[in-house]
Amino acid sequence: SKIKVYRKTSSIQIDISTARPGLVIGKKGEDIEKLRGELNILINKNRPAPIAVSINVEQIDKMWLDARLVGKEIARQLEERVSFRRAMKMAMRNVMRDNALGVKVQVSGRLGG
Question: How many whole angstroms separate alpha carbon 65 and alpha carbon 69?
């Protein structure tokens, strides 16, 4: 859901917040190591002194309290041809189940294709 990049003189720290960290990390950390290696190559390409890259993956405990994730879930359901009223009501029900104070959902555009 969120990616934060902290740049320092000798290192770069990347914080990734996601509802499903297993997809980012991969089996036995293979995907995250591959990402770290590619970033090292890109960042240290033309530098005399190498810069260290660290990646932290955090899990979002309550996915339904993050507006971006709720919006992406509604969009995914609409792409699967779920009724927009049903998708909105399910999203509102799930958000309120996670003890939100309130929720406002708005869907617009041509849905019929």
Answer: 8
Q: What is the pLDDT of residues 10-48, one digit of tens each?
A: 889 999 998 888 888 888 888 889 989 898 889 888 888
- Show the domain range for 7: 2-59
Contact 96, 103 (CB under 8 A): yes
55 bridge partner residues: 14
Q: How many domains in the chain?
A: 2
Geometric angle at alpha carbon 83, from 79 and 87, rounded to 5° = 80
Q: 11 and 51: one domain? A: yes
**By percentage, how much of the chain surpasses pLDDT 70?**
98
d(CA 109, CA 113): 10
Out of 17, 38, 59, pick the residue that ends a domain. 59
